[in-house]
Amino acid sequence: MPRTTDAGDLTAFSGSQGGYDITAGTLRARVDFLADDQLRLRAAPDGVLTDPAGSTIVRTQPEPQRDTSTFDAGDYYGIRARNVVLRVYKHPLRFGLYRADNRTAIWQESAPLRWSTGGMRQSLVRGGDEQFFGGGEQNGSFSHRDTTIRVANSFDWNEGGYNNSQPFYVSTAGYGVFRNTFAPGVYDFGSPVRTGQQERRLDAYYFTGDLKTVIGRYTALVGKPFMPPVYGLEPGDSDCYLHNANRGERHTQDALKVADGYAQNGMPLGWMLVNDGYGCGYEDLAATGAGLRKDHAQLGLWTQNGLPNQAEEVKAGVRVRKLDVAWVGNGYDFALNACDQAKAGIEDNSDARGFVWLPVSWAGAQRCGVLWSGDQSLSWDYIRWQIPTYAGATMSGIAYNTGDVGSIYRHDPKMYARDLQWKAFLPAVMTMDGWASDLTTKQPHDQQPWLDGEPYTSINRKYLQLKERLLPYMYTLSAEAARTGVGAVRPLALEYPDDPAALGPQATYEFMAGPDFLVAPVYSDTEVRDGIYLPKGTWTDYWTGRTYQGPTVVNGYRAPLDTLPLFVKGGSIVPMWPKGTLSWENRDRTELDYDLYPQGDTAYTLYEDDGVTRQYAQGSSATQRVDVHAHGAATVVQVGASEGTYAGKPAARAYRFTVHGQGEPRLVVGPGGPLPRLTTDDPAATGWRYDPATGVTEIRTPSRPTDRPFSVEIIH
């Protein structure tokens, strides 16, 4: 082991207006206070403060916070900022960040900075019930107390791997830390907490606030999640159609037959990679792109050796890029630069939004790409460990993290269906064809969701169509992620930070899709799901309408192969596209549906734009607020005017409300007076009907101008 050295006694302290220089022998440190009570702490044993990452990760430094003051407390110097006090201890040099009262610790070093020839470590006091999240994609986990995580480039695609890790963590003590570096790190969340990178320097940004606030401030520094095109939230398909070593010689335009298959089987498809595989080129690119667009799908390419023809390919119709590990496998700044380059290549040569996938990345990749957990083989265990992986990645501001539906290398109809069910609630999904073999026959088996026949085709169609209908909800969450840094797929601990059970073993293998859906995947060969934890509140079974009062644990939940355990929080307002929608492009824009779970007073704001261009960044978008008031004998739904404009915005549309759990109405009153009770299945008819089997009231309104508010009153 290399010899270690600890920081000694403070020998100099000076500074003002938010910037302070500190020395302890040969060690030099620098503290800079930044906006929103952020601070940057740098230290170097040789006295030379360097910044190897430059502007690659942090493109724009936050504004300095100059309104600071100092005081001498005897044992330490205090630096007082707006809402925090940084203590600089003298004997030996240590740091501690406190709240404005200078009594409540946010974080406190338990020992001086320690360094060797190969790294520098910071040690912090761990709180009695302090929890830790982050580290980017950590395969198989989302919570890290009493564990050690690695933050580095990894080629382990399975549980325990960390190929999309990030040098960032967030604590329930009210802070988060980002290490501004490309050096690998090890974070030990024992007692004390010991974190370090493999470099003889420290460059750390500290953020304060609750979990969501810290995630927002971290992503404001390294890059907020990108806003995807709406077709990027539809399912993708990937295979090699030229020089395919696994499936024999084919032609690029053979991809069109597969795209036709999606349409013929009533399954949505947003995009296709048509050269997915090593040594697989392409031909007739423009014609292939045109053919895909007839099926409302966009053309994508995989690259394993750079982007030498990007301009020409984008002009030929390429709107999706997947970066292969053969190119970006070195990770760190190399992968981050490639991701930025691929996204910019699409945007510099078209009016589209860049949509990029990559399997190895670093801090900042959320601004440019979907992070994909790599090549895995199918098993029940494969399904299990991915659940906390993608939810946990959200705690590092990674809004789009996913794995291949049914894996890449093996195929089984039942496991494929189970995997697709819950991944329908991830924002981005893809099937990887042409590489798998059937687990039973050992023969090659492609992965399109209709190939296994019944009952699997119908089950897979059910969830793909549900995913499509929920795109207004998921797209609004994407807009929220681009604004706040918080993605759609969330561990329960993010939505329920004061609930200890949200960190328990039962909550590990379930997640929230936005604030409204609780998804508890089936990850074993069973038709009964035990141990479903429902937090405080009212929860409605999406399929049966049965309600549960949380906190509670549901055991013995019947989950035959066609049933994903899925619960909706009381008070939820969920926008949906009409039944039968198969594409964002040809959807019925004259109708918008809302799935309502009335409880007290709740509100929801829908986000809309053209879905494909970058005009939203110049303000071409619209929002529409919906309020639901459920009190006593009446439930009132207030739909506000759609505010804002964008290309293709409908001037008017009808609304279809499905209202759960309110009992049979006595009267339903719309903007023009009482609505008739429906006695026909005519989808164009306006009025209402009640289904006693499900307890759902369905209300259809006439077409309404989108720039005018209206209300519907349900009287019981």
Automatic annotation (TrEMBL):
Family: Belongs to the glycosyl hydrolase 31 family.
Keyword presence, Lipid biosynthesis: no
Residues of the Glycoside hydrolase family 31 N-terminal domain: 29-188
Domain of life from the UniProt record: Bacteria
InterPro entries: DUF5110, Gal_mutarotase_sf_dom, GH, Glyco_hydro_31_C, Glyco_hydro_31_N_dom, Glyco_hydro_31_TIM, Glyco_hydro_b, Glycosyl_Hydrolase_31
CDD domains assigned to the protein according to its UniProt record, in alphabetical order: GH31_N
Keywords: Glycosidase, Hydrolase
Domain Glycosyl hydrolase family 31 C-terminal as annotated: residue spans: 488-574
Keyword Hydrolase in record: yes
Pfam families cross-referenced by the UniProt entry: DUF5110 (PF17137), Gal_mutarotas_2 (PF13802), Glyco_hydro_31_2nd (PF01055), Glyco_hydro_31_3rd (PF21365)
Domain DUF5110: from-to ranges: 591-661
Record-given protein name: TIM-barrel domain-containing protein
Residue ranges occupied by any Glycoside hydrolase family 31 TIM barrel domain in the UniProt entry: 344-477
